[in-house]
Amino acid sequence: MEKFDPIKMLELVKVEDPDGDGGLTLFFQEDKILKIKVVDGKLVSEFM
Questions:
Q1: Burial 3-35 (b: 16+ CB within 10 A, else e)
Q2: What φ, ψ does residue 47 adopt, rounded to 5°?
Q3: Which H or E run includes 48?
Q4: By the 8 A CB rule, do 26 and 34 touch?
Q5: 3-class DSSP string for 1-36
Q6: Most CB within 10 Å of its CB: which of 2, 16, 35, 38?
Q7: What backbone torsions phi and psi does residue 13 show, to the nearest 5 degrees?
Q8: How far apart are CA 21 and CA 2, in angstroms?
Q9: pLDDT truncated to tens, each residue of the chain (48 aa)?
Q10: Pairing of strands 24-28, 32-39
Q11: Cα 33 → chain centroid
Q12: Is the dihedral of CA 16, 19, 24, 25 positive or negative?
């Protein structure tokens, strides 16, 4: 799960559900943002 190391131990600050893309956006401390959405029946996540 190295993919999620940038947000490990950071406080969740805000949640947008749904966001502008119809997914879920999680805002963490230190300006870390994680976007999650369903694409072709699979969960896809990306850091912004």
A1: eeeebeeeeeeeeeeeeeeebbbbebeeeeebb
A2: -90, 145
A3: none
A4: yes
A5: CHHHHHHCCCCEEEEECCCCCCCEEEEEHHHEEEEE
A6: 35
A7: -100, -40
A8: 25
A9: 688 888 889 999 999 988 888 899 999 999 999 999 999 999 999 998
A10: antiparallel
A11: 6
A12: negative
User: Which tokens belong to 19?
Assistant: 């966001």
How many angstroms separate the CA atoms of 12 and 38, rounded? 21
**Amino acid letter at 1?**
M
**35, 25 Cβ separation under 8 angstroms:** yes
Give me 27's structure tokens. 């805002």
